[in-house]
Amino acid sequence: MAWRAMEVQDQRVQFVVSALKQIKPFAALCVEYGISRPTGYLWLERYRGGGVAAIAERSRRPHHSPSQTALELEQRVTQLRQCYPDWGARMLRVHFGEDDRWHGKPLHEAILAICKELGIAEAIVFRGIEGYGSGSRIRHANRWTLSKDAPLQLSIVDTEEQIAKLLPHLDAMIEEGLVATSTVEVIRYSRTPEKAAQNP
Fold it and tell me: pLDDT tens digit string along 160-188?
């Protein structure tokens, strides 16, 4: 129907007018306008209480945000980020092979253990299908067997200081592979209090 190209306010006014004239059953009218019956009743109730202005689109922003960052602090952080664009979290990517080992243990398990010991925020191992690195040897995961020569990538995210603590360990542990770092913007990082207590 043509109302989809209308402004939201015009759609609501037309809906309310049609509902008040009782041109067709209320449920059918709601279907025609693509809204639920509770929404239709809400628009009618608002219109009766305050006229056309009362059915205008309202902000969905909460009235109260107790954990919102103070405006002054938010502005200061924004200024600092503009002055120092390289500040922030760092992502370290370590590329090596699944058959690489450290003291008889799979290398990815050994590196994860060091990350855990250092309190690194996030470390995840990804298993690739195929690839090659510094040694130019193509590593691939055999589709028919559980190959132990697949390319692996270990992705680690934390502050620059934490990443700096890890680098000497990686220098000693990795014989052949690639280590790359980049700045990342962390959008959200949270842990429930229960999980934080279990995994300090």
Answer: 889 999 999 999 998 888 888 888 877 77
